[in-house]
Structure formats: structure tokens, C-alpha cells
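Now read the record:
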Amino acid sequence: MGAITSSECLDRVSLNLAQDAELLELFRDAGFGWVFIGIETPEDSTDNTRLGTNIVPKRMSPAAMVDGYLALYRRLLTDRSIAERIRNKLRHMGRPVYQSTYPARDRIGIVFRLLTKGILPGGPSRAAHFLRTLPLRAPSRLPLVIAEWITGLSMRRYVERRFGTEADASTLERCVAAVRGAIVRELASGKVTLSLAHALRPNLAVTLSGLLDRRFFTRAGPKLERLLARTHASVTLRVEAFNAQQRHHFERLLQRLARYGDRVSIVIDARLRALLPVDSSIFNLVLHASADKA
């Protein structure tokens, strides 16, 4: 049972609570004002106090986690989903949780911009969903509806801008071609291979299978940085061969890519870990045992 404060109840629930209208009604009647929803590791006998275990399953790879969240975002940020969440709030919340404090002129401007830049560009379908959420019987809740639509559409645009697949397809193609053109010599010698995989997020895998000089790192670095900056793609660096002379050049490459570290995976042989200066708090570091390990 949750804690009771100021005649309101708080509790922890599972996410599928939203699918049970009767249970939501009972929660409201019982005085529950807020609920906390957490995502925990679905494993038994797990120490959930350790870093990261309360976020995603520990066996989930970074790429799988990203793809899962992208699928979730796209599902939750459709016009229908936004409208359904707003209608559920209006139905089950006893009072508005948001009241506008803007002057009347500013409120009119906010509504106008929402309609002209948010609702109408979405076409008749979005307009219909918007109209379904208008609280005609409770006008005092209109600020809540406006705020929720602004939040939902803003998040949707962020996801589309940063992770959209159609919008940057041509940019991705040009950036990959630029990477390939910068390292033609290394590709021809077989010291480097490139592989582009398309999923919810494209991934460019760069495999370093031979010893490389300064020229490779100085030419490849800017092109990989440009790819990460201009597209939503991720990059995987697979290091199969490395020596101490490459360390400085590799550090400079990682410095270039650090800003986008959440989209960069470094896959290395566990025996090379001491030679490679990879900060696992910035990049996704994956260690693997060599096949010829004794």
C-alpha cells in the first residue's frame, strides 16, 4: 500500500494499469492522486541496487535497447496515442494538474501556434483526434489539453528529427560514401571493412583488422563525426588488430566521436583492453574473448 499524505494516496503500479478502466476508476475513488511506474530487470535473484539493473534487462545489447525505445516512442507518439492519453487523464483525474498562468493575450498566441504549427499540419486525422480531446463539459481543463498536445507533438518532432528514417536517408547515403571515399586505400588493402546494416536505426560497422597509420585515423575521424552529427545512425568500431603505436591516433578519433558516444560501440578483444583507451561511461564498450584463446 502506498503512503498517504494530505488525504491523497501514492502507490507503485505496473504499466498495464492504463488498460484497466475499472481499476483506474477504483484508484481515483480511493483517493490515489499519483502513481509511480518503474521498469525493472525481469530476472530472478538479481541485485537491483547495482548501476543499470533497474533500467533495462542486463542481457540487452545497446543496439537492442535503442531499437526497443525507438519502437516504444513511435508507438506512444502517434496522434491516436496522444489523444487517448489525454482523454484518460481527463476521465480519471478529479481535477486539472495544470492551470495556465499566462496573460490572456499569451494564451491566445499559444493556442494559435499549436493549431497552425502542430494540429493543422497533421491533416484531418490529427484534427479529429484533437477535437475528441476538447473538454466541452469542463472548460477549466482546456489548459491541460493544450499543454499535453504541445508536449506530445514536441516529443514526436524530436524523435522524427533525430531518429526519422525517411528524412535523412539521402544524407546517410552521402555520409557513408564520404567515409568510404576517405579510406579507399585501407579498404583496398583489406585492413578495414565497412558494413551498413538497416534496422530501426542504421548502423555503420567499421572493422579494423590490420595495423593502421595516422593517415587512416585523420581521414576517417571527420567523416565518421559528420555521419553521427547529420544522421541518426550509430557506428560500431570492431578492433581486431592494435598496437601501442596506434594509441594516440585512436584517442584522437575517440575524442572526435565522444559527443555522440551513446551511438558509438567499441567492440574489442578482451586481451586488447589494456592497450585501448576506451571510456565505457561515454561509449558502449563490448569485450569478447578471442576464438584462438588458449
Observations:
- Residues 1-8, 40-56 have pLDDT under 50 and may be disordered.
- The first helix runs from residue 21 to 29.
